[in-house]
Write a structure and sequence with these properties.
By secondary structure, the chain is mostly helical. It is built from five helices and no strands.
Amino acid sequence: MRRVLTTVAALVFPISLAAAPAVAASHGTSTTSTTNVVTTARAAHTLNHPATLVAQGPVDVCNYTDSRPSLHLGSSGAAVQQAQCYLNQAIGAGLDEDGDFGRVTQSATEDFQRCADIVVDGRIGAQTWSFLSFWANAPGAPFC
């Protein structure tokens, strides 16, 4: 009996997280009860998460681009505007969102990195993007 419950529990948990069909392994036990549990889990999943409610998270406060390239002194374009907007939201940097990563944007980036207690290098890479987007979109911003 313990083996059947373990198999059933192992099958129900992944189904509650994904809409893909599960494959049941019987391990020498009857699959009838396993099939009923899987079917019940699928029905519960469908009822709790209808296809019409597919939210992808909160609306981003800055909408210049979804691109997150590495940025540094001399970079330009929509990704720089996105970073400048995030810096304005996260720490109240007061930057012109002009898409030019100059000395003022570099200084604001360093201020943000110090405030966030991450590596201070004046560049916007993966870690800084992650912190910037989170802080800029968080309730209560600016923080520093």
